[in-house]
Design brief:
heterodimer, A: alpha/beta, abc type-2 transporter like fold, four-stranded mixed beta sheet, two-stranded antiparallel ribbon, 16 helices, 6 strands, B: alpha/beta, Rossmann fold, Alpha-Beta Plaits, six-stranded mixed beta sheet, four-stranded antiparallel beta sheet, 11 helices, 27% strand
Chain lengths: 421, 314
């Protein structure tokens, strides 16, 4: 094999691609646009942190009890979670005014504290009227969730205060030896009445997607997968037809270089283009706050470049298959872009497969290119070990070899067809 | 081996159409061999087989002592196709380095060759610019440089001067003659009669997929050409048919070679000239030029095919 010829194809393709504005848009600008959209539209800054609700309050309570409407508003104003105020409270004089501002979207929720609230809470059950802004299911769920959580916690604490006050009276008027009841047992019983089931919810999320930076990392890989797919398809689909359009094919066929050198040189050129673009996309991802777990000292992390290589070769191989129906480089480009974007959205490359309809999920699970992207995610997002990844790696390599071999056969047939035209 | 190219009974068929119909050709080493024929005659098909791009349907081609399908043979051939084969986004240098790499020429050697050839063809000062900014003629010259970069033994040029202005054409001709001077063999396919006649040590005329005559231009002219040719140029364009018709009535066969030109093949021009001027006078036609010239390869083609060169071209 003439390595100088392979190098010549590689260098020419890389140079000409990076001098072509249209190619640069699709290979570099487009993935960057997706990463930026993800970072500032789909997962905007603040995602995952505490949300402050704008709450309007009408306090009609004139009770003289220690816990009354005024004290309740004070608690709301002083409630801080993770260093952030949970409520931004605005006082209203009438319920109508409060409702008006809710309808205009100036408030997320409203509380109407009726007269006698403090007295009722102290001696029985207090009542609160809550108004929730419910423009859409998501807003409704967030606003009611935050407010319900807060009110449950206030109710629980109030229960404990009332139980402790009740116990003081019980201890005073009922001797501990009488009827075998101890104050501790009575307290336990009363707490049980107030809180029959004490639940704690712990979210189990892979460490890498537990935060906005980690989610951005996940989507950055999706953007790279998308770019690998349509660019690889384009490189393969236009491999021969582009040379023919440039008028270089006859000259190359008359040269001592073989078709294999053309194929290898152009494939290597494609891999270089894809890797450079992937590095640029990763840098942009890191700049917008993506966090990616990759360590050169972790041997399993070195499978990431191998998965990337298989993804690139597989996409180019699929592109060679497309060359059967590509009569012009413009046609090859349009077909590759359309198919690339279609597969990106339907095969679990950009959208998690769990979001897809069941029939599409079957496609996502069996699309070989998705295996390679999943392999990369399993390592740098879920931090899988060798044993977890081995089967996927094997499947990806076998699929790549088969697809590229079929693509090569088609390529050779195409070369002969063009030579004899 | 005395011959650079030997082709025997070559047939090439595309979807039932015979582009080459039993071509035989022998090209000696160290000469300029002209392959003259109108467009569509089969020149490019024959060249495709000689340079190893396509396989013959029947027959044999031996180039530089081997098969043109052998990469070692192809590495000794320099081929300039009709398509320029240059990447528009790359500079002249980048395109030429690419072809140097394909032929395994290292960068230092390639640079020296590029400088020598490009300055010879007047392209050197343009090499830093992207090829998309080049004129057609400039691309053509760059394409010739690319074919010669690896110092090949056999150079196959397919219409190398198409679209070039006369001064540049002369430079290309000088370069081709220089190659012959260095012992190279040049196969020159052209549809310019003057080019084949001036450059070709030997010429084959190809028409409809067959070689109809071969030999040196002088041999061809003496073998197939008339003893003399009278060339007439009329003042009034579009009147040649009228004059040709009138001459035919007197048994003088004249062929129109342009809107205002006629060529008459004859043995004794001195006897014919007064008769021709008399007929033109009676028809009221004004003759601007009337001269007796030596026969050209165009006359040979006319004699052999009965058609004017390029008559069937669209």
């Amino acid at each position: 094999m003439n390595l100088k010829a392979v190098k010549a194809f590689l260098v020419r393709d890389v140079k000409s691609t990076f001098k072509d504005r249209a190619a640069l848009f699709w290979i570099i600008a487009w993935p960057i646009i997706w990463i930026l959209l993800t970072a500032y539209v789909f997962i905007p800054p603040g995602t995952g942190s505490v949300i402050t609700l704008n709450v309007g309050v009408v306090n009609n309570d004139h009770s003289v009890a220690p816990f009354n409407g005024t004290y309740f508003v004070k608690i709301m104003n002083e409630t801080i979670v993770n260093g952030k105020h949970l409520f931004n409270v605005k006082m209203y004089s009438s319920t109508n005014k409060l409702r008006e501002d809710l309808l205009k979207g100036r408030l997320d929720a409203g509380l109407v504290i009726p007269d006698g609230f403090g007295r009722n809470v102290t001696y029985g059950t207090g009542r609160l009227d809550i108004l929730i802004r419910a423009d859409n299911p998501s807003t409704k769920q967030i606003n009611s969730g935050i407010l319900s959580g807060f009110l449950q916690e206030v109710s629980r604490r109030l229960s404990m205060v009332k139980i402790n006050i009740s116990l003081r009276y019980i201890e005073k008027y009922m001797p501990s030896t009488q009827q075998g009841f101890s104050p501790e047992k009575i307290k336990e019983y009363l707490v049980g009445i107030a809180i029959p089931i004490n639940t704690t919810i712990k979210e189990v999320v892979p460490v890498s997607v537990s935060s906005r930076p980690a989610m951005l990392g996940w989507y950055t890989l999706g953007a790279i997968g998308m770019m690998f797919l349509y660019t690889g398809l384009m490189i393969g689909a236009a491999m021969i037809v582009r040379e023919k359009e440039l008028g270089t094919l006859r000259r190359l066929l008359a040269s001592p270089s073989s078709g294999s050198e053309l194929l290898i040189g152009k494939t290597l050129g494609g891999i270089v283009i894809l890797v450079v673009s992937a590095i640029i996309a990763l840098i942009v991802g890191l700049m917008v706050g993506a966090r990616i777990y990759w360590s050169p000292t972790e041997p399993v992390d070195w499978l990431v470049p191998i998965f990337m290589l298989t993804a690139a070769i597989m996409a180019i191989g699929m592109g060679l298959m497309l060359s059967l129906v590509s009569r012009t480089s413009r046609g090859a480009s349009s077909l590759s872009t359309a198919l690339g974007l279609l597969f990106t959205l339907t095969a679990g490359i950009w959208l998690p497969k769990e979001w897809l309809p069941s029939w599409m999920r079957v496609f996502a699970e069996n699309f070989p290119f998705t295996w390679t992207i999943n392999g990369i995610r399993d390592i740098i997002v879920y931090q899988y070990e060798w044993s977890d990844i081995a089967v996927l790696l094997l499947k990806s390599i076998i699929a790549t070899v088969v697809i590229f071999a079929i693509g090569t056969l088609i390529y050779k047939a195409q070369i002969r067809r063009y030579a004899e035209k | 081996m005395q011959y650079a190219i030997m082709v025997e009974d070559l047939v090439k068929t595309y979807n039932g159409f015979e582009a080459l119909r039993g071509v035989n050709l022998s090209v000696k080493r160290g000469i300029i061999y002209g392959l003259l024929g109108p467009n569509g005659a089969g020149k490019s098909t024959l060249i495709s087989i000689i340079v190893g791009v396509s396989k013959p349907s029947r027959g044999k081609a031996v180039v530089l002592g081997g098969s043109p399908l052998d990469p070692r043979v192809r590495s000794r051939i320099g081929y300039q196709p009709q398509e320029h084969g240059l990447h528009p986004n790359l500079t002249g240098w980048e395109n030429l380095y690419f072809y140097a790499g394909i032929y395994g020429v290292d960068k230092k050697e390639a640079r020296a060759r590029i400088e020598e050839l490009a300055s010879c063809l007047g392209v050197l000062e343009h090499l830093d610019k992207p090829v998309r900014t080049y004129s057609g003629g400039l691309r053509q010259r760059l394409s010739i440089v690319a074919a010669l970069l690896h110092d090949p033994e056999l150079i196959v040029l397919d219409e190398p001067t198409t679209g070039l202005d006369p001064s540049v054409r002369q430079r290309v001709w000088d370069l081709i003659r220089g190659l012959r001077g260095r012992g190279k063999t040049v196969l020159l396919a052209t549809h310019y009669i003057e080019e084949a006649e001036k450059l070709g040590d030997e010429v084959s005329i190809i028409d409809n997929g067959k070689i109809i005559a071969s030999g040196s231009p002088e041999e061809l002219k003496s073998r197939y050409g008339p003893p003399a040719v009278i060339e007439i140029i009329l003042d009034e364009k579009g009147s040649v048919d009228k004059l040709a018709h009138a001459l035919a009535g007197q048994g003088i066969k004249a062929s129109a070679t342009g809107h205002d030109k006629l060529r008459i093949h004859c043995k004794d021009p001195d006897a014919l000239v007064p008769e021709i001027t008399g007929i033109a006078y009676r028809l009221g036609l004004s003759i601007r030029v009337l001269r007796v010239v030596k026969p050209s390869l165009e006359d040979v083609f006319l004699k052999l095919t009965g058609r004017r060169f390029g008559e069937n071209e669209s």
